[in-house]
């Protein structure tokens, strides 16, 4: 019987697995509901019951000084969908008033030395023995930059305060590079299937910033992170929401291996064009629409979309079926079950 690890290894090596692999992203409320309704005691039991090839996260254990938040952020909890779900909203941006490089240097930056890496190899071995593929890292620098500076400052900085932007992004990069390097080293070469190297660069209709600004501020350090992952035999998983078609070729040039989440309703993100132009260079991950189809469509709509995604993105391999971001509480359990049942039955090679 083929394991989730073997399916991931096949798709990452541009080989055909027995069927299209699947992955799972959701809000905490959705996962807890599934655990309860499907009578599962653990997450792994849930993945096995739904036959999902869930990519497992591994990483170091925080062992540093007590802090209210690693980056000094403050949040408030906001409910939505009539209380069905909640999310955390940043209400305090600790670098909002920073105006000089000295202000940046004085910020209480975290250190990769504050983490214990000693159990990573043991956790990787446990996952692999159980048949799961693993990923490491959570590099998404500009999202963190926006939280530290506030959204308005963050976008203005790139044009009006480039030296300040460089100083902050350098510190964010330095921390995450050291964290990932030590994590990959602790895991051992060839033992981490995927490294998460992301940035949200798209809106529903276009890019969040110009291609020139992406090239100037984000891609050089992203390239270094990708090269680090590759040096340990790990593939680079790139997450970028929205209408990011203009950036895809450039991201391939710096080495991304997987593209997520494939919001095909956005301009330029039609599945046929993505597969035609980039299917020989990328593994696509996601693409089951969680803005309309999953929450508001019928079970039949979900089944039809899964089949369409497999027919287009899954042709000749190179596709991991998953929701195109976190499944939200409005999506019923029936539709989630239908999504994965259809994938395993219709996605056979």
CATH topology, which one? TIM Barrel
Q: How many helical elements? A: 14
Q: Biggest sheet: strands, sense, closure?
A: 7 strands, parallel
Helical content class? 40-55%
In terms of structural class, how would the helical and strand content be classed?
alpha/beta
Indicate the CATH class. Alpha Beta
pLDDT < 50 stretches: none
Q: Count the strands?
A: 11
What percentage of the residues does DSSP assign to strands (E)? 5-15%
Oligomer: single chain
For the record, the count of structural domains works out to: 1
Strand order of the largest sheet: 1-6-7-8-9-10-11
Q: Name the average pLDDT.
A: 97
Distance between the termini: 15 Å
Net shape: globular
Describe this structure in words.
- With about 350 residues, the chain is of the alpha/beta class.
- The chain has one domain: TIM Barrel.
- About 45% of the residues lie in helices and about 15% in strands.
- A seven-stranded parallel sheet has the order 1-6-7-8-9-10-11, sandwiched between helices. A two-stranded antiparallel sheet has the order 2-5.
- The relative contact order is 0.14.
- The model has no long low-confidence stretch (mean pLDDT about 95).
Short description:
The chain has 349 residues and is of the alpha/beta class. 45% of the residues lie in helices and 14% in strands. The protein has helices at 4-12, 28-37, 43-50, 101-106, 120-129, 141-149, 151-160, 162-187, 211-231, 245-253, 271-278, 293-296, 299-312, 333-346; strands spanning 56-57, 61-62, 74-80, 85-92, 115-116, 134-139, 194-197, 235-239, 258-260, 283-288, 319-323.
